[in-house]
Amino acid sequence: MINLTENDILLIDLLRNNARMRITDIAKTLGISRTTAQQRLSRLEDNGVIEGYQIKLAPTVLEKQVSAHVSIGILPNYNETVHSQLSNITEIVTLFSVSGRVDLLAVIQVSSTSRLDEVLDQISKVKGVKSTESAIILKTKFDRR
Prior knowledge:
- The chain contains six helices and four strands.
- The mean pLDDT is 92.
- It has two domains: 6-46, Arc Repressor Mutant, subunit A; 59-137, Alpha-Beta Plaits.
- The longest helix has 13 residues, at 34-46.
- Strands 2-3-1-4 form a four-stranded antiparallel β-sheet.
- It is α+β, with helices and mostly antiparallel strands and 145 residues long.
């Protein structure tokens, strides 16, 4: 990992707000040349600071989907098995290891509540899963990602 400069951090913040921002606009905002901005960006990518870029769906699209947080408890010695099996469920968009009474927190996005029910059944059948508890997301108040 490299040491991040103030301009590196500003560049990352710009891309967090708009990953499709043109390099000329980045350079202008940072007060550096286009070439310098491109070199900084390439260095951040080459050194693994920036691993990739993602799409961010519009709220109108997300409103047509059902999102849920699912807390998952795992039996002792089943972590790797459970992680491996859960990675095959494409509706799980993020999986966090957490502290507390559960071991994992999964973020799920599906097209309907009936599909959510199917995915929850699929998770509960994974060998080593001892418990699940789900909470459907009703509305996102804000998202800084």
